[in-house]
Design a protein that fits this description.
Elements: H1 6-22, H2 35-51, H3 54-64, H4 74-89, E1 112-113, E2 119-120, E3 157-159, H5 165-173, E4 182-186, H6 194-201, E5 206-210
Helix pairs in contact: 1-2
């Protein structure tokens, strides 16, 4: 059963919003607040700031990310229950709701270069030294772009930079057409779901997305 802690998520969003606002340099006034109410608001935000603990945040982050927790997974439900219990302990009225949603996951993924020599990609990142969670495979979903259609396509590969509209405009200026081809785009510049959409609008039959080391971490 696919579960997702909707109301807990909203509560987290609200808490993070309050935290973000409380980190802004104090001003003597707040738009929409009278002088007295602004002072009361600043006092409330200061009290909130004082209750924050970096140790708690680190512990919670490790707890929530200890195992893969995609939609509908067992650990996602455990995380939802944990978050709900935290909010209840702070006095919030909290409940979890379940929604049945369409959530496609891949069964087979193959990416191969056929010429000038055949090469099959592993499609799996190596474990990161010092990060025990990076080697987990049993519960982890494979890398894929959610809601992409099934298909088996072969075609020439065209590099499209970030795969945003401006990149295709530049390719067009240079006389490069992606129609009937597979494009390869790097992460960044837009949401990843936009890249296949824009590629399809320009006639591409497939889209690969990769992380350029220059844009990925250090």
């Amino acid at each position: 059963m696919r579960t997702f802690p909707v109301r807990v998520f909203f509560a987290l969003l609200l808490a993070s919003s309050v935290f973000a606002q409380s980190t802004v340099v104090e001003k003597k006034s707040i738009l929409g607040f009278s002088g007295a109410n602004a002072s009361a608001q600043f006092a409330l935000e200061s009290k909130f700031d004082g209750s924050l603990s970096s140790a708690n945040m680190m512990a919670w982050l490790k707890r929530l990310s200890a195992r893969p927790h995609h939609l509908g997974s067992a650990y996602n439900k455990e995380n939802a229950d944990f978050i709900a219990s935290q909010f209840r302990s702070w006095g919030f009225e909290t409940k979890l709701e379940e929604f049945q949603v369409l959530f496609p996951t891949p069964k087979t993924r193959i990416v191969e270069m056929t010429r000038p020599e055949r090469f099959t990609l592993k499609l799996q990142e190596p474990a990161v030294e010092g990060d025990a969670t990076s080697a987990q495979q049993a519960e982890q979903l494979p890398t894929y772009n959610a809601y992409s259609i099934d298909g088996d396509v072969t075609g020439p590969l065209v590099y499209v930079n970030y795969g945003i509209p401006a990149d295709y405009e530049e390719l067009e200026k240079r006389g490069i057409d992606v129609k009937g081809k597979i494009v390869i785009a790097r992460y960044g510049g837009s949401w990843r779901g936009i890249k296949p959409k824009v590629a399809a609008e320009h006639g591409a039959i497939g889209c690969l997305i990769y992380s350029d080391p220059r844009n990925d971490g250090f």
